[in-house]
């Protein structure tokens, strides 16, 4: 099936879930994560789709949920899921029946984790620590590649395991005291929404867990290079904007 035929089929389903990674999908990758913003065409298409009565649009990112809200600029009805599925906005949390994020023991483990990560990052020029409600992420984008890789290897060796889940991405290592994946988040959302089909788009290795849970009637789109389980591929966020515009036109009318 061609990509356009897949979009036409997707546009005709009863209830549709559109789940999208943010960085590298709606927004071009930048060295300073706080400067990331969605392409205007993608943002417009997302808002059009989210306004459709039988369509739910969710940003599914490795960023913390509050950080995702700041850089994306999206508000309800666009849903926000952060930390690879560990954090849900209030509306989605209520839909899924989720309460507090961490147990007291997990809170203690998170404090120790962040203290350790801060020590490692402070001793490495160019590295950056992003704190999240369930843990933290060490970013090395913009550093010398060898030095960045060495730091991430050290972080993994010292902190992964013993109740800390580690997820490697592009120039980043995410560590959390709860185990979750984007794939499990997509499955939970699909079930709670009773979605007839799912579109998921992502650019990073962390997105592969979501691509692998998609079924025959779903559409997975890999943005950029790299091996993938997705059925379709686009070159960059600019091409992804065109896909979203096409889906919005088919689903919502031109």
From TrEMBL:
Protein keywords: Hydrolase, Magnesium, Metal-binding
The protein's Enzyme Commission number: 3.1.3.12
Function: Removes the phosphate from trehalose 6-phosphate to produce free trehalose.
Annotated source species: Pseudonocardia alni subsp. carboxydivorans
Stored Gene3D superfamilies: HAD superfamily/HAD-like, Trehalose-6-phosphate phosphatase related protein, domain 2
NCBIfam families referenced in this protein's UniProt entry, alphabetically: T6PP (TIGR00685)
Record-annotated membrane-spanning stretches: none
Residues in the signal sequence: none
Record bears the keyword Transcription regulation: no
Annotated family: Belongs to the trehalose phosphatase family.
PANTHER family assigned: TREHALOSE 6-PHOSPHATE PHOSPHATASE
Known catalytic reactions: alpha,alpha-trehalose 6-phosphate + H2O = alpha,alpha-trehalose + phosphate
Gene Ontology molecular functions: trehalose-phosphatase activity
Protein name as annotated: Trehalose 6-phosphate phosphatase
Associated pathway: Glycan biosynthesis; trehalose biosynthesis
Tagged with keyword Magnesium: yes
Highest taxon above the source species: Bacteria
Cofactor(s) this protein cannot do without: Mg(2+)
